[in-house]
């Protein structure tokens, strides 16, 4: 049906969608993270280690994601006291701590990396997970939790005087991000089949940040579109050989100049605009 | 008994005394004005009561409950609502969404309930919040604009959204920081009418204002501050003739 090459691109794109969503959710509450690679590493290493020791794939995947979630709560607690730029620095520091940890941690192969996983990740399982994750994120966004996050993003103090609990709102956003990044890492480990701590360094974290920036920072679909677009772009640009990454970077720069909010706006893909389209069709 | 009581409240900013040993006891179901020249410490009082700032000294009580040490969101849950001088609305959210944020502290559903609520229909609490928010919008006369982004509204309308957003927290006392700033005379008189209706419905209003006509017309009691110190307190009729107040505003008469 589709060639193995296409399938691999789509699977990587699906994993990148998960990671883009894992960046998007904390940002909903005003927390900008350049450490999602670290959470991804935790998910990847924990699930890979467990499945190598005979634990069923989906169980080890979940344990990996939950571990990542718990650690994100621990990291998120100090992040509550600081704002803006300092959160970014904190997450960068965290990402590097995780990378160096796995570089030196013997049980998961340290500098040799970890290999020999069974390729459990399939196109269906990745995209099914993406769909479930998006469904639940949508539920949260449309609930009072989502509104609290949006209010915190726009004006923290005003939100707090309106009765929004900053602690739970920010921790919730950050831990959901950690959980989803852990899921993405688990799928990655069981598709790449070999993981090394360098796969999850700051470069990876920046890459994750770029997806929603290009696709649209204020909507869930933005990250999805950005991940799909940029993942396929890196493959499509293979014809340009050595200039591949220059063109890739150039496209990002041009996007930021002409459409700084990303391709999709907040309501581009939503019931609201869907209804508007139906409205237009009916009366024309 | 006073609904809001402040005892010997002081606030220093790096040695600068913004507020000095203020005593204030606001009666329930009344309109209480706080006036004073710029820099008199009026907004500081509100920031202390709402919990944005922590006092250097002194205690605050709401219906007998001590507020010191409570977080702003806990105070809101008790029934204290605040509007800001510079509004600080959420410009990228719609009018209705702005109000729904105010209903947040009244929704008790946890994450599990939000995620695993089969079939996936809005929670009853959510519906109640929507209804309440729309009632508030109807009250301030903005129901027709509920789906507009706040940034697309005129300043007068934004001022009303700020009031409505505070009301959406279902408060008992409203602290309004210059609710008339930037309003024209028609909007101001509409606002006066709204405030009176609120008090008739059992709310307490405490507000800071520079528009003396409005202050004298609608308030039951007035507290006058100057340089962080209370210089006068009483009903409008006595404040109007108080020599200390006239001195603070116009300067002392030369002998």
Based on the coordinates given, report the CATH architecture of the largest domain in chain B: 3-Layer(aba) Sandwich
Number of strands of chain A: 2
Return the CATH topology of the largest domain in chain B: Rossmann fold
Percent of residues in helices of chain B: 25-40%
Radius of gyration of chain B: 19 Å
Which residues of chain B sit in consecutive blocks of at least 5 with pLDDT less than 50? none
| Rounded average pLDDT of chain B | 91
Mean pLDDT of chain A: 91
Helix content of chain A: over 70%
Shape of chain A: globular
Topology order of chain A in helix (H) and strand (E) letters: HHHHEHHHHEHHHH
Q: Which strands sit side by side, in order, in the main sheet of chain A?
A: 1-2
> Which stretches of chain A are low in confidence, meaning pLDDT under 50 for 5 or more residues running?
none
Evaluate the radius of gyration of chain A.
19 Å
CATH class of the largest domain in chain B: Alpha Beta
The main pleated sheet of chain A reads as: 2 strands, antiparallel
Q: Give the class of chain A from helix and strand content and strand pairing.
A: mainly alpha
Q: State the fourth-level CATH superfamily of the largest domain in chain B.
A: P-loop containing nucleotide triphosphate hydrolases
The dominant shape of chain B is: globular
Question: How does this structure look, described?
Answer:
The complex is a heterodimer of chains A (284) and B (255). Chain A has twelve helices and two strands; from the N terminus they run ααααβααααβαααα. Chain A has helices at 4-28, 36-52, 57-79, 85-104, 123-141, 144-154, 156-161, 166-192, 202-215, 220-236, 244-258, 271-282, and strands at residues 114-115, 194-195. Chain B has helices spanning 42-50, 72-78, 95-103, 111-115, 124-140, 155-167, 185-200, 212-218, 236-241, 243-250, and strands at residues 4-13, 16-26, 31-35, 57-62, 65-66, 80-83, 173-177, 204-208, 221-226, 229-234. The longest helix of chain B is centred in the middle third of the chain and has 17 residues, at 124-140. The termini of chain B are far apart. Classes of the chains: A mainly alpha (284), B alpha/beta (255). The A-B interface holds A 136, 139-140, 143-145, 147-148, 150-151, 154-155, 157-166, 172, 218, 266 and B 50-52, 71-73, 76-77, 81-82, 84, 88-93, 97, 100-107, 109, 111, 114-115, 120, 123, 126, 129, 165-166, 168-169.
